Protein 1
Amino acid sequence: REILKCGRFDLKLDGLPLVMGILNVTPDSFSDGGRYQGLEFALSRAEEMIADGVDMIDVGGESTRPGSPSVPALEELQRVMPALYALRELGKPLSVDTCKPEVMREAILAGADMINDINAFRAPGALEAVIDSDCGLCVMHMQGTPQHMQEQPVYQDVVREVIEFLRERVDTMVAAGIERARICVDPGFGFGKTIEHNYALLRHLGQIRQELALPVLAGLSRKSMIGAVIGKPVEQRLAGSLAGALASVAHGARIVRVHDVAETVDALKVWRAATAD
Ligand SMILES: Nc1nc2[nH]c(SCC(=O)O)nc2c(=O)[nH]1
């Protein structure tokens, strides 16, 4: 299948892999943490990513770093909704990174084209929040919760268990009446995985895609799985992140979720030129 249905947009998946730009609207993601500053920042950052060639923008109002506490729904709405209203006229598919049904519902009403749920729509009411829309849905694997997931990740067979988790979630969503054409899957790099688990999943992205027959979205950008290999802090992980994005695509990912849009777009163009049959 070459199309991912995302609200106002049908994303073509048979061309250049798609670049999803990360736009955090959490207080710790812009300078003074002021709400208005945040909106101005969000708009200028979005325009910059669009100028850099981004294919879609992922707006997140809750930090899900390991150990991070959950944010109340109202607070998350206060962060995300102004950004959505400001960005929706920019003509690019907008994704909202949230686990909360209340946020999903409002985001869809405000024109979000995809809901990106690191919790795979498991919260009570999450399926009901998205079922009567045509927005794209990213279903991601996570073991445990952001608060505790990195304390001691353990699997018998991480690839098998992630595939089975994603299969169960997708089957449940399809049984609830959600069109498969709206769904993409994501192994959730860094969400309850050791470095070794992350690289086993990366090496087996093709198997995930094959067995689920769904597009794969991969998010490695600047993560500890990159940092651990190069021994560099988060602000020095561009080269490693580009290599990670290309590795994901080489293993079959069709969407990469990144911070560094211009660089990733260039890297994918060269990769495509080098591998186009
Ligand atoms: N679908 C999807 N959504 C995400 N949201 C984050 S937040 C943590 C960070 O960017 O470091 N990661 C991911 C990811 O890997 N996949």
Protein 2
Amino acid sequence: MAGVVGRLARRWCSGALSSPLQVTRFPTLQLHLCGPAMTASQKDFENAMNQVKLLKKDPGNEVKLNLYALYKQATEGPCNVPKPGVLDFINKAKWDAWNALGSLPKDNARQNYVDLVSSLSASSESPSQVTPAADRKQPGGDALVVTSQDGITTITLNRPDKKNALTTQMYHDIMLALEAASKDDSAITVLTGNGDYYCSGNDLTNFTDVPPGAVEEKARSGAVLLRDFVDCFIDFPKPLVAVVNGPAVGISVTILGLFDIVYATDRATFHTPFSHLGQSPEGCSSYTFPKIMGSSKATEMLVFGKKLTAREACTQGLVTEVFPDSTFQKEVWVRLKAYSKLPPNAMRISKQVIRNREKEKLHAINAEESSILQERWLSDECMNAIVNFLSRKAKL
Ligand SMILES: CCCC/C=C/CC(=O)SCCNC(=O)CCNC(=O)[C@H](O)C(C)(C)COP(=O)(O)OP(=O)(O)OC[C@H]1O[C@@H](n2cnc3c(N)ncnc32)[C@H](O)[C@@H]1OP(=O)(O)O
């Protein structure tokens, strides 16, 4: 319950309760803060909304109401909705706060919002000093956190208590984050995980709660989602780096073949137990893995589910470099910050020269793999594997 309240409180601050799209757009977090004499731009405003999500300390109800009111004033102008009833405590408090701003111009409200967030960030912890480290837990647990600094946009999987398993919502949010990152002014994009795991693959509960008779439709929509998701990685135009902070399973491993660089801690393992799960390879791994490591090594992984250590994965060419866990974050981020200072257009064009001639083929392979998996998800082998996991009879 406390978690739910916390999430709602954070949504208040960005006004997301009244405009749900705000939560899923993931505009990137630029960390230049405006002085009071300047007028905040729309980008500063969006960045401030993101910074609110990263605050370590709960700023308290009064500040949250203030943020809510400034957000509404900045986006909609003076309060324009009927006053809620006296027993509707929360909405009435929000209405009162917004109404109290009277006719404050939108620009001023936007600036005040940015200033307030800036002061909260300074008194909490400046996100500009925050490295998205493996052991950093975001307050309240937004499942995906996107930050942008030093020319690097970082997409962090943030469900450490579920080993960063990917929910349906997370697939959608990652696609939106990639779309935004492809257009922002960062040079490099990073995918990483928070906690001891990089990612435990598809959340197996994605396949549950399906009403009788809707299983086929669920498999069909799952295949569409999978195909769209993998397409985003195939088409991503900038250097894409995986910072593999711990064990990786399933789809989080297979899509590594579509990344440009894979840095791994020596604690990481790489596991694609598709046969165990009654499933088949995805993420274009049926093509990229044999190409990267040769067909018999790829078969060991994709057909027999052999789990590779980080060093084995590096020897096979799936991982670019392995770092000791104790210095992993430091070494990797120093390296990436140096790379991010290289001319971004040159890097983008070089990536495209390397990757473009494969794109059409990869899209076709992705379509084929997704359609085969659609059938697999309906098989007894797959359903039994999921039931076994959920009833704790089986673990990888
Ligand atoms: C629509 C696109 C579809 C794309 C298809 C992709 C295919 C794949 O990705 S296949 C791979 C699927 N993943 C798995 O089969 C992993 C299942 N998880 C495990 O075997 C184990 O949890 C683990 C080996 C990853 C970790 O074991 P450990 O003992 O360290 O921790 P646990 O106590 O098991 O896990 C903690 C917590 O996290 C939940 N959890 C972990 N992984 C998943 C998952 N993939 N889906 C759902 N939930 C997961 C686990 O249930 C625990 O939750 P509780 O604390 O609530 O019990």
